[in-house]
Amino acid sequence: MRPVDIEALTVPGIPALRGDLLLTAVSRPDLKTNSYRGGLRRVDLDGGGEGPWTHGTKDSAPVISPDGRWVAFLRAGEGSGRQAKPQVHVIAAVGGDAKRITDLPLGAGAPVWAPDSRRITFVARVPEPGRYGTENADGETPEPSEEAPRHITNLFYRVDDVGFLNDRPQRLFVVDAVAALDEAEPAELTPLTDDRVDVEHPSWTADGESVLFVAPRDWAAEDTVRTDVYAVPAEGGEPRLLIRTRGTAAKPVTAPDGSILFYGTEFPGQEEIARNTGLWRAPWPPGDEPSAARRLTAVETVDCDIAAGPPVVLGDEALVVVRTRGAAELRAVPLDGELAELESLRCLAGELAAVKSFVVDGSRIAAVIGTPESSGDVVLLSDEKPSVLTDYSKALRDKGIRPLDELNTTAPDGYPVHGWVVRPEGEGPHPVVLMIHGGPFAPYEWKVFDEAQVLADAGYAVILGNPRGSAGYGESHGRSIIHGLGTVDADDLLALLDEALKLSDLDSDRVGVMGGSYGGFMTSWLAAHHGGRFRAAWSERAVNAWDSFVGSSDIGWFFADGYVGEDLEERRKRSPLYYAGKIDIPFMVAHSEQDWRCPLEQAQRMYVALRQNGVAAEFLLFPGEGHELTRSGQPRHRVQRFDAVLEWWGRHL
């Protein structure tokens, strides 16, 4: 895979299934337009392939009404301004022209059908008048630099790749979609929630009378990362607290018996970092007081992936995706259980693979699954043999995909370490790049990873590992680096490197290290403390100094305390910047100008310190990008970054 081959990375979204209609939205980078293109595709359930179902180039989030008559989805137009924002559209399931039913200044979120197949709920950001291209009280539309000052009174006021929050809160809406089909223009909609908080994850109660959603604890009366489940009448009224969680809530849904299922974490005291996400159940209807929820899955062994979609009831079980040892498996959780361990949960798909999303219709299940040979395909699951219905990775396979070879070893203290090596073609010996993921509470997975494939195509062996601190190996594994960054996680990575270097086709004299975010932190840390192991380093979007990260990062106000603690000396002790004087290998600092997760000053401070110390340091700075450059940045920037990575390692390895 070459850098420009990111155009072959066609990624399917959450599928929609009802009767014989199976839809998914696909997206791929397009270098010509420097954007992401795609649309809704219909997948033949009998294995006859797939093809376009709509003709928009930026259609996404399809969902079929319960009665099977309608499909709602998001469509964004070309250009800029309101017409380029995603708006809810509805089209007959038998085909025809799509009708736009919303016209919101900043667009709409994914639609969710009511049980009556008429109404749709969604969330959308609503700007203050005079901001983000809207008119102010004087009928003027100020330029961004001319907008009034933002008056900020809370800590959670901005998010990377989203922007400022308080002046465009995310609010809840309901629209009569069927009635809107007869209107010439979309009607003006009134939000069901006020402008004091962001709400998310809407769904309907079984009777269609209310909408469930998630909002900050106590309606954000105090700064908090804790969230609860609320409900509001679909016709309007005061939101009601339904479930007060032990930490956070996500993706609440109503089961057929009326009970509420949701994903949640629990925080003992103020320990709010690196917690496994479990499946919870609460009774319905609630009493006068908020319901007490019961955790259905074990705290230590089950970590649900909320990005795969909400839990779905199938018989007397709920289906969820669970992260485990680099896999993302579709598992079945008994509804009458409590604290069920991972090994007791029936596995439907995802062994040595990654289930990215799924949908259920009756007894049928369709899932999007990535594998070591695929970035994601639509698969129809059955008791006999899963049927792979699409081949979105064919173009990528034709260009060459190198296999994931599993590695297992032990750290100096005897702790097991798990990872992979991706090796190029040929006998070698190949130069080696140790690549470190972000998070740190995240995993590398059993699926095609473009970063590793591009390097392998260029002749490098790439080592990928999930050291202590990663997700999917138990909550205690993820929390073992709390107040200990750069200790056992570094030991694990170096042990994995040593294990890989036992392979005869890897060159132990030509080794580099690279990573982004937490991986950038660890790259800087290893360069300072174990620099003799490496010829050069590439540190990207890194945390380098916890003292300034606390006040400059969008999550710094709780993340730094969680991982490092409040003690100023400990923050200094755990900051790579303060060991910059120990770094003497060539060092690339790569960053994005609009990164609010690990702000630009983190890169600037490290680069200046290295240059002042006489290190051969370089600085690669991407304009207009945020923390997610390598995953969702402008396609041309992604290619330019790959070219720079290859040039760097070509020079030093």
UniProtKB/TrEMBL annotation:
<dbReference type="GO" id="GO:0004177">
    <property type="term" value="F:aminopeptidase activity"/>
</dbReference>
<feature type="domain" description="Peptidase S9 prolyl oligopeptidase catalytic">
    <location>
        <begin position="446"/>
        <end position="653"/>
    </location>
</feature>
<dbReference type="InterPro" id="IPR001375">
    <property type="entry name" value="Peptidase_S9_cat"/>
</dbReference>
<dbReference type="GO" id="GO:0006508">
    <property type="term" value="P:proteolysis"/>
</dbReference>
<dbReference type="Pfam" id="PF07676">
    <property type="entry name" value="PD40"/>
</dbReference>
<protein>
    <submittedName>
        <fullName>Acylamino-acid-releasing enzyme</fullName>
    </submittedName>
</protein>
<keyword id="KW-0720">Serine protease</keyword>
<dbReference type="InterPro" id="IPR011659">
    <property type="entry name" value="WD40"/>
</dbReference>
<dbReference type="InterPro" id="IPR029058">
    <property type="entry name" value="AB_hydrolase_fold"/>
</dbReference>
<dbReference type="GO" id="GO:0004252">
    <property type="term" value="F:serine-type endopeptidase activity"/>
</dbReference>
<keyword id="KW-0378">Hydrolase</keyword>
<keyword id="KW-0031">Aminopeptidase</keyword>
<dbReference type="InterPro" id="IPR011042">
    <property type="entry name" value="6-blade_b-propeller_TolB-like"/>
</dbReference>
<dbReference type="Pfam" id="PF00326">
    <property type="entry name" value="Peptidase_S9"/>
</dbReference>
<keyword id="KW-0645">Protease</keyword>
